[in-house]
Amino acid sequence: MDSSEVRRAGRPRTSVLDRERILVAALRLLNSVGPEKFSMAALAGELGVKPPALYHHVKNKQALLVGMREVVNESIDVSGFGSLSWREAVERWARSYRAAFSAHPNAIALLATEPITGATRTLAMYECVVQGFLAAGWEASAVMGDMVALESFILGAALDVVAPDDMFDPGEAAAQTPGLAGVLAAQSALEGARADHSFEVGLAIMIDGLARRNGVGM
Q1: ∠105-150-166 over CA atoms, to 5°?
Q2: pLDDT band at 4, cuts 50/70/90?
Q3: Angstrom distance (rounded) from CA 90 to CA 79
Q4: pLDDT on residue 175
Q5: Where are the beta strands (DSSP E) in 79-208?
Q6: Of 124, 134, 113, 98, which Cα lies nearest the Cα of 214?
Q7: Hey, CA dihedral for 152, 145, 206, 137, is it positive or negative?
Q8: How far apart are CA 46 and CA 24, in angstroms?
Q9: Cα–Cα dist 150/210, whole Å
Q10: What three-state secondary structure class fits 18?
Q11: Can you give the pLDDT at residue 9?
Q12: Would you say residue 140 has pLDDT above 80?
């Protein structure tokens, strides 16, 4: 066997890197280090390769962010639009949206502010939501504003999932903040997770308010 045959036999049948592996590693790294320290160089180090190796699979950092958002958005459920009532469809969408981003809280600041041009699955998700609003009776001019209002609430609620339970604890200042200390004690008696309760209350209020303001049935 000559040296060329040895080299051929030793080559892996598939590339060490592929786009899916890069995107999964990128989300893992982002979850670990946060948006400030996330970079293509850091991602290359995470994967044990040189930065140029990444560019065979993702054109640039913007393309990487688009792909990462696609991975996060895969679990957002828009199946209710067109098959359920508008309210039920929005509830399903909002709950799955919150779950998707609460699993990747560091992605919110980095991904939710990036343009979605080229994000095929994300665009398809928004198309389903928009069509659901229009079918329910929304004026076209009101759809984006109302959808973004819901998104802002959902993303804030996703961060609340990972916030510490004692975030509002006044500590030694409890005597100076009796109202805050009292409502915290009262909330602790509620069944279920604090963040889940707040989300469900807020979601119901937003859905009711948007429907009333736009004069549509639910």
Answers
A1: 45
A2: very low
A3: 10
A4: 84
A5: none
A6: 134
A7: negative
A8: 11
A9: 9
A10: coil
A11: 46
A12: yes
